[in-house]
Amino acid sequence: MVKATKAEKKIAYDTKLCQLIDEYTQILVVAADNVGSTQLQNIRKGLRGDSVVLMGKNTMMKRSVRIHSENTGNTAILNLLPLLQGNVGLIFTKGDLKEVSEEVAKYKVGAPARVGLVAPIDVVVQPGNTGLDPSQTSFFQVLNIPTKINKGTVEIITPVELIKQGDKVGSSEAALLAKLGIRPFSYGLVVQSVYDNGSVFSPEVLDLTEDQLVEKFASGISMVTSLALAISYPTLAAAPHMFINAYKNALAIAVATEYTFPQAEKVKEFLKDPSKFAVAAVAVSADAGGGGGAQAAAKVEEKKEESDEEDYEGGFGLFDEE
């Protein structure tokens, strides 16, 4: 069988990538640092059905994306180009983006701390019996780890932060973790960015719930409304508030002057005769409570009669003559 030349491989790769871009509108850009071929094969099997994993050199992926944009006029796909940095791959999917992202995260594999690797997390060695014989104490002494000999084995006394996140793993740390049988790191495909119909956003967006989206949307509307009211710029959100404020201003002018309009007549009538406020309140109470309103009116009348009697009795002085 004749092997394909480099030029033929590039053409085949361009064709495959362009076909995937035509078929799928959702793409996850994933980092593939320290991911082995077996692990990647398992991920492909797990996503089989509605997703396709495509790896390749960044230069080849960028070239294929540009070719597709030129041939189809799809300029939105060019938003992928800035994301193709480092050791990354593409997952084309028709499924739910959050579910696919969660499925990818399942395929993480534990890995030992190799010399020269940058630690993705803090590595803390917990206290306890190590199972090592006393001749191995030199490793602990070099790393300033407090130990004691207990029943013929080395025991760590207190928790020790062996490696900090972002630091490179040294030879002593790697040797000690290997002796203790600790595989502190885990690697897998990590979603870095999400492409959806031309839009690019962070994977954290996939974790937002509907309640959080509603809350953020309401907060945005509130800010737009406040800004529109402050600069007197009409918007759909600010229009109800503007109408109410305009009505209040017109009502204030009508109350202060002889100018009037139908909506102001009732207010001016109330202001001329404040007792109508009390009558209106009793009427509302009667409508709301049914019989309770009549009882309230009866109590008011009863209190009035008692007041009249007190006034009548109070009309006689202590020294008045009969």
Can you offer a commentary on this structure?
The chain has 322 residues and is an alpha+beta fold. The chain has three domains: 122 residues, Ribosomal protein L10, N-terminal RNA-binding domain (Alpha-Beta Plaits, 2-Layer Sandwich), CATH 3.30.70; 69 residues, Alpha-Beta Complex (Molybdopterin biosynthesis moea protein, domain 2), CATH 3.90.105.20; 68 residues, no CATH class. 49% of the residues lie in helices and 15% in strands. The strands form four sheets. A five-stranded antiparallel beta sheet has the order 2-3-1-11-12, sandwiched between helices. A three-stranded antiparallel beta sheet has the order 6-8-7, with no helix packed on it. It has a two-stranded antiparallel sheet with strand order 4-10. Helix 1 crosses helix 3 and helix 10 packs across helix 11. The chain is flat, with a radius of gyration of 39 Å.
